[in-house]
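Running this now, will post back.
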Amino acid sequence: MISQALAMQLKEAGLVWHTSVHDFFAIPDRDLDGRLFVLSDMMVTMELLRGWPAVVFHGTAEWAQDYLLTHEAVWMPTESQLREQLEEELAARNGRFQQLIRLPDAYQCDITLANEPLHFTAVSPSEAYGQALLYLLQKPLPG
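Update: finished.
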């Protein structure tokens, strides 16, 4: 999972969140820092019923937050979602994903843009993909 700071930068650079069940997101500026949420089509909790562990299905979640507009949240894309977004952005710019390399203490995402090789190194594959995607989003589309 990428850092919330990188997720915020991606959002500010124009990454669009098309919500889907099982997407992760954060809610900044609401005293919920460090909390990660997931979109679900059903509220399920673990409870003890008559002393036995049980999976309990709830029709509604009772939380003081009735709703949240998606632009108020920060999408926390998974590694596969970041790679998909990166490949889409590269295709729009006639670029290519080359490879993801595991280094001794990091990962390196290699892409080619306008026949120029570019390398993005980070502590996780997600962060490396995210940095490459951020670079592309901050660069104007050609022509």
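The mean pLDDT is 90. More later if anyone needs it.
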